[in-house]
Amino acid sequence: MRTRLDHLVSSALQYGSAVPAFTCYDFTTALAVVGAAEEAGRGVILLVAPKTAATRDGLRLIAALRGLADAALVPVAVQLDHASDLKVMADAVASGADSVLADGSALPFEDNIALVREARTLLGADVVIEAELGGLAGDEDRAFGVEPGPVAGMTDSAQVEEFVSRTGAELLAVAVGNVHGRYKGEPQLRWDLLQDIAVQTHVPLVLHGASGIPADELAKAASMNVGKVNFNTELRTGVLATLQDQLQEHRADGENLQGLLRHWSDSAQAFVKTALGLLAR
Length: 281
Ligand SMILES: [Zn+2]
What we know:
Layout: H1 5-14, E1 19-23, H2 27-40, E2 44-48, H3 50-53, H4 56-71, E3 76-83, H5 86-95, E4 99-102, H6 109-123, E5 128-133, E6 145-146, H7 157-167, E7 171-174, E8 182-183, H8 191-200, E9 205-207, H9 215-223, E10 226-231, H10 233-252, H11 257-278
Parallel strand pairs: 1-2, 1-10, 2-3, 3-4, 4-5, 5-7, 6-8, 7-9, 9-10
Helix pairs in contact: 2-4, 2-11, 5-6, 7-8, 10-11
């Protein structure tokens, strides 16, 4: 059943957990994410990358994901991830996304606020808006090893309260040492900073780049009001490794595309189950 993203997140936080969100570049992966969520009896968020939403086929994918969310036996929300283009946001919502990350994190503070407010005016009150304060290192759609650090620009906790109240965002993505892509070495989250941020606002916080962060740290983050956790890198890595393993065999086996897709789906489901286990209640 399609569910408002903020409702999904607040009910997970009541149980001391967070909702996992997975980037879906295709429908096979999305089916696997929802299938694994149904098996576990847990809600999930389907994320669509802005590059996907900028194409006609991508908008059709969003419409398909909305249909999948409607048909799901567990709560599912569809969110446009990391968008800074208002037209892409409007198109994604018109195609069926019920939430957007209006990402002005690369902009100066006032411009970031202005972007989120424009998004609200354009999209209306029913669309759940996530905003981002502080820049995340790494590329969302690639998986280079990334070192978190000052380059990225951590969230300034002193700006949080003003940012949230002036933007009216329902969720806030933060940069506290988390990165997009693969961590160089062990992830080093800045717990002191996360705690400082958490006391500044009541809106749920979002941790992007969760691939590689261990379960105990995700639980600790949830105790500090982190209610949504985005995964991308490990899901892709797992699917690609599986396809590489299986490709020759399925080519030899009568060009068995259906069989290959089943391995794709199994690999994605296995990762989603792992992620749901990391965020266990
Ligand atoms: Zn992200």
